[in-house]
Structures are given as structure tokens and as C-alpha cells.
Amino acid sequence: MSWGCGLRYLFSLPPALQQGGVCTLRDKDELSRLEMVQRLAKDGCRFLQKVPERAEPHSQEAVRVYLKERGQDVLVLQRVSSEQLLPPAAVGGRSPSSNEEDSVTDSPTSASDRYVVVSGTPQKILEHLLSDLRLDEGQGATPGKEAEMLLDDFLLTYLVFMSTSDLCQALLGHYCTKRCRGKEEGKEALYRKRKVLHLVSQWTALYRDFLREEENVKLFMKTLYRYVLDDLYEYPTLENDLKEFQKLLRMHRRHTVEEYSPRKKNKVLFHQLSLKENGLQLRGVYSDTREVLCRVYVTPDSYLSVRAKATVVAQDLLRVVAEKMEQAEEELALAAVSYTGEKLVLQPHDSICSESLALPERLLAYRKDTGDIMKPLMDGAELGHRAARLLSLNTWDVAVALTSFDWSLFSSIHEQELIYHTFTRSASGGRTVALELLLQRCNEVQLWVTTEVLLCATVAKRVQLLKKFIKIAAHCKSQRNLNSSFAIIMGLTMAAVSRLSQTWEKVPGKFRKLFSELELLTDPSLNHKAYRDAFKKMKPPKIPFMPLLLKDITFIHEGNKTFLDNLVNFEKLHMIADAIRLMRHCQTDHMGNEMTQKDSPEVRACVHYLHIIDNQQILFELSHRLEPRA
């Protein structure tokens, strides 16, 4: 019996909907769906199948099923073909389109038809998700494509419509629910418990450190662990599920099943001891390996962007600044300016970053003898003597270093950072650190390119520098790093650089042609079609232009309501989840991201320490000094 046919049979719809004679169950999946319908019917729920009001004789309309409680819709499902359902790792995924033939007056739907969630209450969506999961004997949960997609959508986006605390309570409720009695129903209870454990395993594996410090999650894990231990006596087969559960929590049971049973007198004491031990192990050994991009202002209008560990101290940072600015380290000092305007001189071993990764509003490198920051670049005679260090470096090595830098940031972005960035719109409590670092880096590479060109005083060197940057952008593209490739091209197309007509005229034709081809990637027409087509052809691992990916997610968010008639608009959340899966697809590192690169200190310094002018007026003044208006 297909899903749609089962609804007609169970709820005695009009005779016209019951054509087809005797129905047979074709697989376990359909049986589990039928059982879910029967259980919901016992709980007083009603299913209705909506017929399109203005359907043409041969029109194609999607069939939707509505679950009602107390006269209100609580779950809306839509029938799609299994061919439309792609696994979570696929890009694009299935779309709940209306390309399904309306067969409410024809023969029962085929076995390949499946139902996906359109909208619903959080509780009913979770209940439908658990009902859709299938279990193989001894193999744990093995969801079908549609259930796997629903599980992934739900875990990626549940924070939009319910709190973590609410999810914990709901999962505990599903695990402990005693709906049925009798020998036959005991197997159903076991399946339900295993499904909850599988969902929790998937959840904790997906969120990793995002759940590490949440006290309600710790309590939930301890409580669920206790419940599973209680159930081992009645359901010994839960032992395998418990082992997988323990691996994820880094728990190590010190007692066997035989040593623990409800008959033991020290049951409560055993729980207290084991949970205390396991709770301590839950945190694990956590080393602070986070990185930050420190902006150290060396003039009123320019700063040095330095990549450093979160544990960096003032002395190490000042050493880098002095070397980059060709100043004596002992002549410089470092100060932090707070948001209230207070200036604090940093001692050599003072930490730059706070526990929350919040940097001071501004770090200043100044001369000890005068107490003032270095003079603006516009006022210094060194501008004409500035050496373009980039000219002596191999362009492929620079591109590899840029890609390696970007990959270390991009690969550390957690999928949930995109959700927090899109929906919070405010301080996210340090939950979008890696994403913000990559966005900051993209903006800084763009300004760095512009700065380097405008600080190059002679026409001949500027031409060589333009050729270098064009080749580096092309190499970044060939290395599937469109984030840096985009940033370099955008830096060269900024008005302060593009107006240097005398310089661009001297660039050889083949480089101008290559630049034009690369510039097409930044063309926004037809929704960035050129970029999307080129990026689609690239195999992972690859680094997308992150601002555009965030723009796509924001467009989905702002163009669709999160709630429709007090129900979660799950179609919207599926589209957002699809965009997040695109990033997951890009992070798939089949090759280990290995590229040949010479370990050159000069190349590392060039890529890790960028000198940037962040004042547009100063940039234009430099541009007009190089090539005055006619």
C-alpha cells in the first residue's frame, strides 16, 4: 500500500478516491508509515488530502496531506517522487516543486512516491522525522533518502524554530513515551528508543564544540545516558547503541551489563558515581588552537593585518610589526585603545585577546621616544623609495600560500555559523568566529592589492605589479580558490586603481585579456551566472566566494517567512539547508589540500602580514599623486 493510498483506505475518503481494489504493502518503509498513521489516529489526529481547487484535467499539481489536531493544521506533507530526493551531500537537493501529477482520482500512487515536510509545528516535525527513520536489525538506523534529507534539514536549522532546551526535552519525551503495551508493541518501543539515540548521535556529531559548554545539553546527555542504562536490563540489544553513544560523548563505561541491573541495591550510588566520572570526561582535553587576525595600526590611516594564535602576546606581535615596517623593535611600543577611548600600554607578555576572542577596538604601534603613532604615508618621503617586495616572489607560490591561508579558515567554519550569521543579525557570542575571520580576510586581500599598487611609485614597477596580481588571481582560480581570486580582481577594479590609465596602457595585451576573462567572474548579471557556472564545474575541495554564499542565504531568509499560519515554514529551511550543504560539499577534502609550495619565509610574510590602507580618501589621494587629473 502506498502512503497516499493508505490515507484513503484508513480514513474512508469518498469512493472516488478508493479506486484500485485491494492494496498490498510493498516494503518495510510503507509498513512503518502505515503504523505511524494508525498511531496518530489513536491519538485523535485526522488526515485530510487536499484536492487542488482549480486543477485542469491534465495539470500537474503537488498532492499535499494535512494533519489536524483540534481543528488546526499541525503538519503539512507533500508528495514527491523519490527521483527528486537527493542525499544530503548533494548540491541543490530536492525541491518541493509542483511537478507531480495529481492522481487523487486515478489509481493509487506508486511505491516510488514519498512525502516531504512542507510545514508543521516543531513537535510534529520531530515526530514525523523519528517515524520516517528505518532500522535494520543489528545495523542501527539506516534512513531512506527522504528521511535522511529531513534529518539533515532538521538538525541544521532547528535553532531557527526551537531552542536547544526544547529539543532536549522533546527527545527525552520521545525516548520515555510508553504509548503501547504488550509483547508486539515492545519491539516498537525498542525501535523508538534506538531512533532517538541515532538522532542524538547525529546531532552531537554535527554540532561538536557548539554543544560543549551548554549546561542544559550536559544535563540532557547525563539523563539520557541514565535512561539507557535503566533500559539495558529490559532491552539488552541497546548495548550496541549505547557503545556508539559513549564514543560520541567520550564516555567509557567501567561496568558490564551483568554488573548493573535494577535489582542491584547500590543502583542510585552507581548512577551518581558513573555519571560524575563520565560528565567530567565529556569536556575532554581542549587545547586553544584558535587563530585571529590582529589589526595593528602603524599610521592613522593604515594597519598591518597579522595572523596569530589567540594566545599571542604583545612582544611577538610587536616583533612582526617592526620587521614589516622596517623599524627597530626596541624603538616601538604597543598600546590598546578600548571602546571607551582609554589607552593602555601593553607590557611584553600581555595577552592580546580576551577569553571571548574580542580584540580591543584598536591596537596602535607607536614610537617610544615621541609617544606618537608613525607619520601618515602621504607625508613620508619613503613612499618614493618603497620596494615592491612582491615583485621578487614566485606568483604560484604566493597563490598557494593564499589558498592555504584561506583553506585553513574556510575548513574550520562550522555549518551552524551560517545559521547564526543569517538569523541573529547581532553579536552571536563568538559562534561565528571562523566565518567572520574569512570575511575579514577577503576584504583585507582586496584592500591589500589596492594598497600595494598605489604605494608603488614608478610606472614600470606598477606595471610589473599588475601583471603579478593578475597571474596570482589566475593561479588562485586554478587552485579552486575563488575567494582570493575574487578579492584580487575586485582590488584591481577599485576606482583608485582602475583610473590609472597610463599604467594600464603599458600592461601587455595578453595580461589585459586574462584580466578581462577573470573580471567576467565578478559580473553580477543574471545572478552571477558566470561565477556560478565556473564554480559548479570545479571539484571539491574548493573555496567559494563567501560573501555571495551568504547573500544567497540572506535572500532566502528575507524573501520567505519563517512561520506560515503559526507553522514552521520548512520549505524555507530546506532551501537554507541546501545552501549550507553546498559549503559542506566544498569542504570535502578528497586530496588533502596538498599543493606544491616552497617553504619561503618571504612568501609567508607576504601573505600572513598584509599592510593595508583602509581610508578611501587616502587611496584616491595616492592615486591622483601617481597620475594627476588631465
Tell me about this structure.
The protein is an alpha+beta fold and 630 residues long. Among the domains are: 163-286, Up-down Bundle (Son of sevenless (SoS) protein, Chain S, domain 1), CATH 1.20.870.10; 289-375, Phosphatidylinositol 3-kinase Catalytic Subunit, Chain A, domain 1 (Ubiquitin-like (UB roll)); 386-541 and 587-626, Son of Sevenless (SoS) protein, Chain S, domain 2. The protein has helices at 3-10, 28-42, 122-132, 145-157, 164-176, 183-207, 215-231, 238-249, 267-283, 314-324, 395-410, 415-423, 433-454, 459-478, 482-492, 495-498, 501-505, 509-520, 525-537, 546-559, 570-586, 601-608, 616-626; strands spanning 46-50, 64-69, 72-81, 113-120, 135-136, 140-141, 291-299, 302-309, 332-337, 343-345, 362-367, 563-564, 567-569, 609-613. It has a 6-stranded antiparallel β-sheet. A 6-stranded mixed β-sheet has the order 10-9-11-7-8-14, sandwiched between helices. A two-stranded antiparallel sheet has the order 5-6. Helix 4 packs across helix 21 (570-586) and helix 12 crosses helix 20 (546-559). The chain is elongated and about 85 Å long. The termini are far apart.
